Amino acid sequence: MCKAAYLHVPFCQDICAYCDFFRCRYHVGLAEKWLAAMAKELTIKKLSPLTTMYIGGGTPSALQPHQLETLLSLLVPYTKEVNEYTIEANVESLTDEKLDICQRYGVNRISLGVQSLQPSLLNQMHRHHTSEDVLACIKRIHAHGIHNISIDMIYGLPKQSLAMWEEDLHTIVSSFPIQHISLYGLTIEPHSEFGRQGIQNIDEDIEADMYDLAITLLQQYGFQQYEISNFAKPKYASLHNQVYWRYEDFYGIGCGASGKDKRGRYENTRNLETYLQQGASSVYEKLDTKAQMFEMIMMSLRMKQGISRQAFFERFGKDISEVYGSIIEKQKEKGLLLVDEEKIWASERGFHLLNDVLVEFLGDDEAHG
Amino acid sequence: MEQKYIRNFSIIAHIDHGKSTLADRILELTETVEQREMKEQLLDTMDLERERGITIKLNAVQLQYTALNGKTYIFHLIDTPGHVDFTYEVSRSLAACEGAVLVVDAAQGIEAQTLANVYLALDNDLEILPVINKIDLPSAQPDVVKKEIEDVIGLDASCAPLISAKNGLHIRDVLEDIVANVPAPKGDPNAPLQALVFDSVYDAYRGVIAFVRVKEGRIRVGDKVRFMASDAEYEVLECGVRTPKEVKKDSLECGEVGWLCASIKSIQDVRVGDTITNVEYPASAPLHGYREMNPMVYCGLYPIDSAKYNDLRDALEKLQLNDASLQFEAETSQALGFGFRCGFLGLLHMDVVQERIEREYHIDLIATAPSVVYHAYLTDGSMLAIDNPSLLPDVQKIDHIEEPFVKASIMTPKEYVGAIMELCQRKRGNYTDMVYIDDTRMNLIYELPLGEIVYDFFDKLKSCTKGYASFDYELIGYQPNKLAKMDILLNGEVVDALSSIVHREFAYPRGRAICEKLKKLIPKQQFEIPIQAAINGKIIARADIKSLRKNVLAKCYGGDISRKKKLLEKQKEGKKRMKAVGSVEVPQEAFMAVLSMDDES
Fold first, then answer.
1. Do domains B194-278 and B485-600 have the same CATH topology?
2. Which CATH number is B297-367's, of 1.25.40.10, 3.40.50.720, 3.40.50.1240, 3.30.70.870?
3. What angle do CA B467, B472, B473 make, to 5 degrees?
4. Of A168, B349, B422, B449, which has the fewest Cβ atoms less than 10 A away?
5. Binary contact (A185, B568; C-beta < 8 A)
6. What span, in angstroms and rounded, lies between the C-alpha atoms of B128 and B135?
7. What is the pLDDT of residues B157-189, one digit of tens each?
8. Mean pLDDT of all residues in chain B?
């Protein structure tokens, strides 16, 4: 049974230079048509009651208050029993009025796109807040009774030094009352503005230093790493994101969203025009057992707790060691995976080199046809 | 057809001077090929040839031409490959002719390759007919080029036809020139058979087809013939000419050029330059000029996927059916596993074979850096020919090593002379001579180690002369030098496939260059990898590949599973194109790193 949903809001007030997600510049008329299409999609989808709801983007807070209210009210039938209700926002657009609306409709978690506190870097990626703005915003969120706050940060930006990164992290952990941090290691995507400008990724070693620094520093301040790039105070690990990492089913709603069910995955159209006229127009990819096994491993090993043998057995009726025994053994010998009776998880080094580990599982996938 | 109405000729030219285009125009004008059947450059039949604009395999075509004097002539146009790798094959095709049409570009003038071909033609006593092509170009200087032909080659160019092969201008002048000035074949139809083999192709149904020029006597279907160098005997089953369609005939008469087949299974029996004679009525001696072809350049070819070893052998065998100059034998490399040591006429030949294996037989290859054949003289007085540097014996056992040298002729506008001399010095060349061709151009003569030429000499020459210099060389024998084997160690292990033979005085910079190049080419792995260059066990250069610290997709939108998976699939694809050497994954191109020049570091 699918109990989680991701809803994609494809609008942004401004486009960030690093971004190649599906998004477009906010426009009132367009947003209203989009809401109409959303209403239609929800009618057709007939979601079952959700335990987690996540509204991401784009920038959901770029919607005008009445539009935001419409969106949230459309979701009321499905979010009555929800445990975690997240909405992504940025500092510039999250007004008190919008916070009131969020509070009224049961939103209990805000994910704030901060990315950096360094004026020069923010300017470079076309973001316009200051450190003070961020702190003020966090306080306002608390004032509206929403106490589960996450912020997104980026490392590996062009011209970002290790010292800048350290300064930002210090400011956050020492003076921002938040519970959760997501770190995004920047890859220059060819279709982002950075990519088009021909900007290169920063030195691999500096990027690795930034990652290591974050792990150490955040843990010192009580943020536990529970996934490759996610850190939380105890009990604040994101319930919704864990649905992805446990490879459980989730709905994908809206233009540009993707979802998964028992048999496979689907991607809704990324063309806004198509969405407005013909709805989600999703493309479905059916996955055989072997592909599903791999994907479950790929997602689960991102978590500190790794993959549960029990969960794997329940899903596929086979013991994970029966299918991947020799690969697991080899990675264990290399010190990249750790194994006990209940689970298989990545070591500290295995976390850093997870792609190398996963490629080995992919190899097996093909060898077995 | 009476012998006096036969004309056998080749077209010789520098690459891009319009040889193939002129051949096409001649075929059109003699209506040998209908306009609509014409593909551009009909004689170049292999895709690769078309792509590279070069001719690799030879072809011979019979044409009929009714001259202005009202008489009809039989022309045999014998195409020649246009690259220095195939000099011997060119010389044999020329030996099948009485004349050669020398095409010179009206804008570019004479090039080193033009000269080389002219000398080959003169060696074979051919009548040379200069033709000035591309006269429609704005930069054409036909008078200057004519004077150059007269000064440099010593040919009278005053009556040379001025043509544009591309636009079909004055092509008939060339044909009339051939009628008037190329001698008819001599030779006695009743003498014992002597037919020169100048090419062969393999046909899956009929075996090897030999292309021959009947010099004396005649060949009839049913004759028993002997190949005098290989001593193989066969009965002629079919013979004929190409127009370029195959036309069967009962016999090939004295002076004619055509093909024969005789259920010949092995191309080794049909060697270019060999003489065919009649078993019953044999000639006392073969035609002169036969030479066994020895590969100049060797490299190891290994399948990336070792399961494809047998496929690679099949591919090499199939290519060899059509290419007697390709040699190979099985070899084993500690680093690369099972593969083949292959011998080629030159670098172009090597490239073509590799590309055909990858393209036509779908086998991903690792090629080791090309090597020449070194002569290692041992302390016990014996000599070992070394075509694989890793097989050079221990230094204690070696008295001295000799390497092949070439005489290189480099034609260049005079402003690049300094740059070329610098390049030749760096390539261990010995200056021989320098002559003026005219006020603006010179010909530099150097003796160079062949081993340096198979590195990147040609590319370097092009880049230091903005492409204006042209280059040709011939082998002049072996010379002793201070040579030593340089080993490369990855992670402390010698990788035999990366060994090379270097001059001691150049060893340090080259060792450094190779280490640095490998550092760039080999991706970071989970552990640190030292790369070392060593001579006789002594480390002379080192570079370290730092260990990979982080390879994980940090947050992107959590639900985007397909994106994560695609990234991993891409990484896996990349891995497939690498070879595991010990515990190190080494990409294909790293095995060519030994080619990196000292000045690249």
1. no
2. 3.30.70.870
3. 140
4. B422
5. no
6. 20
7. 988 999 999 898 999 999 999 999 999 999 999
8. 87
User: What tens digit of pLDDT does each residue of B17-45 get?
Assistant: 788 888 888 888 887 655 445 454 455 45
Burial class (CB in 10 A: 0-12, 13-18, 19+), B329: exposed
Sign of the four-CA dihedral B86, B87, B88, B90: positive
**Range 500-539 of B in CB contact (< 8 A) with A:** 524, 526
Please state the pTM of the whole predicted model. Answer: 0.70
- The whole-angstrom separation of Cα B167 and Cα B177 is 19
Q: What one-character-per-residue DSSP string does B25-44 give?
A: HHHHHTTSS-GGGPPSSTT-
Q: Which residue from B245, B286, B291, B261 is spatially nearest to B200, judged by alpha carbons?
A: B261
The topology under which CATH files domain B485-600 is: Alpha-Beta Plaits (3.30.70)
- What ipTM does this complex have? 0.88
Contact partners, residue A124, CB within 8 Å, separation at least 6: A17, A157, A158, A159
CATH fold of the domain at B3-181 = Rossmann fold (3.40.50)
Contacts of B560 in chain A (CB under 8 A): 258
User: Are the C-beta atoms of residues B343 and B371 closer than 8 Å to each other?
Assistant: no
Say how far apart CA B386 and CA B402 lie, in whole Å: 10
**Rounded to a whole number, what is the distance in Å from the CA of A57 to chain B's nearest CA?**
9
Domains in chain A, ordered, with CATH? 4-244 (3.20.20.70), 288-369 (1.10.10.920)
CB B292 within 8 A of CB B320: no
B559, A351: Cβ pair inside 8 Å? no
Q: Please answer yes or no on whether A244 and B561 come within 8 Å at the CB atom.
A: yes
CA-based nearest residue in chain B for residue A352: B550
The answer to whether B329 and B276 have CB atoms below 8 angstroms apart is no
Phi, psi of B407 (to 5 degrees): -95, 120
In DSSP terms, which residues pair with B227 in a beta bridge?
B276
The answer to whether the Cβ–Cβ distance between B572 and A185 falls below 8 Å is no
User: For B225-257, b where at least 16 C-beta lie within 10 A, e where not — what string?
Assistant: bbbbbeebebebebbbbbebeeeebebbbbbbb
Chain A residues within 8 angstroms (CB to CB) of chain B: 6, 21, 56, 152, 182-185, 204-205, 207-208, 211, 228-230, 241, 244-245, 250, 252, 257-260, 265, 267, 285, 294-295, 298-299, 334, 336, 351-356, 358-359, 362-363
Domain ranges, ordered by start, for chain B: 3-181, 194-278, 297-367, 375-481, 485-600
CATH architecture under which domain B194-278 falls: Beta Barrel (2.40)
